[in-house]
Amino acid sequence: MTDSILGFLRANGEQLDVDMASSLDIPIAELRDEVARLASSGDLICCRVTRFIDGRKIEGTSCRLSCDPPTPARGRKPGVKKTDDNNETNNY
């Protein structure tokens, strides 16, 4: 079961535990036990999440591989300042 969970996360990235259980056809209780074991060994990083999908509240555990950092967000990053060409040419 460990190999199927790790392989699924390698192929699909970060996933909720209920989505993994339904995709891998594993009972949710068994999957949660295995995910807890993998998280304690350092293979997975897990956190409790609450999502709202179509107005429904869904609570679960989000899991990802510990060696798979999330992709950086697009756009400007905090602390990065735009260079202003006018300030460079004006000497007051």
UniProtKB/TrEMBL annotation:
Top-level taxon in the UniProt lineage: Bacteria
Region span, Disordered: 64-92
Protein name listed in UniProt: Transcriptional regulator
UniProt source species: Candidatus Accumulibacter appositus
